[in-house]
């Protein structure tokens, strides 16, 4: 039977084989994660660095597997991208994030955008724009309260169609965020060719901000470039107040990180909305 097959594949003890087998097991479990009700959406708040006001939240996918326990996205997202499960899970994620945001608005809580991470694989789909529009219609969320976070790898693949799709989404009011800025290998000029409004500086640049003078220069330059292009800037991975002070000096707009809150479940996220001003 299927269940026996799963048990068997977990018995290997040779370490390399074990890795391969663990992956195979994980893939099998991941396939069933949605039906098994094992996926959930967490939210991490973002704040205005000047006023401290809540400005938005990033939605992050969580998988609690009955067999494997909590599996981090860094492990299961690449796997989902390989076997195209990401299409199904991405759609689920988008719907749930929009639904929750609309639910908060219906309760009379402050209106903020929720941002959702989009894998390049998802953007490849011809129906992606329609899918987003359908989800907005079905949940009743206004487009301006949805942001999509994209990565540089999108542009490395030179997907022209992806740019058109992002343009179409921007036109209807969806916010486009450049995630993990500075970690890819694309040239700066592409910042101009993409319809983005927000740039997120990758947390690797924030991590050494207190210790590395050169990282301060880099972050300063990125922020000034972004501002000149009319973009606003989020610093992610902010963990201490020294970093905040440096980011303020660099004129960063928004912050997100463990200093303020780790990603939390929807109920806890709602408290941030209730405490907003
Ligand atoms: P990301 O989009 O860069 O998300 C930020 C990651 O940094 C999150 O990890 C978050 O928990 C973590 N983080 C937040 N604050 C801090 C901090 O102060 N310090 C440090 N060191 N880390 C912090 P997470 O949730 O494990 O997600 C990892 C990656 O998985 C995400 O990176 C994103 O690329 C991907 N991912 C997560 N959810 C989704 C999803 O729904 N769809 C897609 N396509 N990718 C997702
Ligand atoms: Ca992100
Ligand atoms: Ca990021
Ligand atoms: Ca990332």
TrEMBL record:
Residue ranges occupied by any EAL domain in the UniProt entry: 23-277
Top-rank lineage group of the source organism: Bacteria
Gene Ontology biological process terms, A to Z: rhythmic process
Protein name: Circadian clock protein KaiB
Naturally occurring in which organism (per UniProt): Sporomusa termitida
Lineage: Bacteria, Bacillati, Bacillota, Negativicutes, Selenomonadales
Gene label: kaiB
Parent-record interval covered: 390 to 666 of 666
């Amino acid at each position: 039977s299927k269940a026996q097959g799963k048990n068997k594949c977990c018995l290997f003890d040779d370490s390399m084989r074990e890795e391969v087998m663990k992956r195979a097991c994980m893939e099998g479990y991941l396939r069933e994660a949605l039906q098994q009700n094992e996926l959930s959406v967490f939210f991490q708040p973002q704040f205005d660095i000047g006023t401290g006001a809540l400005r938005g939240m990033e939605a992050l996918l969580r998988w609690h597997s009955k067999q494997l326990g909590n599996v981090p996205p860094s492990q299961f997202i690449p796997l989902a991208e390989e076997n195209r499960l990401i299409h199904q899970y991405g759609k689920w994620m988008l719907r749930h994030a929009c639904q929750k945001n609309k639910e908060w608005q219906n309760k009379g809580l402050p209106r903020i955008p929720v941002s959702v991470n989009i894998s390049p694989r998802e953007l490849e789909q011809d129906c992606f724009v329609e899918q987003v529009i359908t989800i907005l219609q079905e949940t009743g969320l206004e487009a301006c309260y949805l942001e999509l976070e994209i990565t540089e790898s999108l542009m490395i693949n030179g997907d022209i169609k992806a740019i058109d799709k992002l343009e179409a989404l921007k036109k209807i009011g969806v916010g486009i965020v450049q995630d993990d800025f500075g970690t890819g290998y694309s040239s700066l000029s592409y910042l101009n060719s993409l319809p983005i409004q927000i740039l997120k500086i990758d947390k690797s640049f924030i991590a050494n901000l207190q210790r590395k003078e050169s990282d301060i220069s880099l972050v300063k330059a990125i922020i000034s470039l972004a501002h000149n292009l009319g973009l606003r800037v989020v610093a992610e991975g902010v963990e201490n107040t020294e970093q905040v002070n440096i980011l303020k000096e660099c004129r960063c707009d928004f912050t997100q990180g463990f200093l303020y809150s780790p990603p939390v479940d929807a109920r806890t996220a709602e408290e941030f909305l209730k405490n907003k001003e």
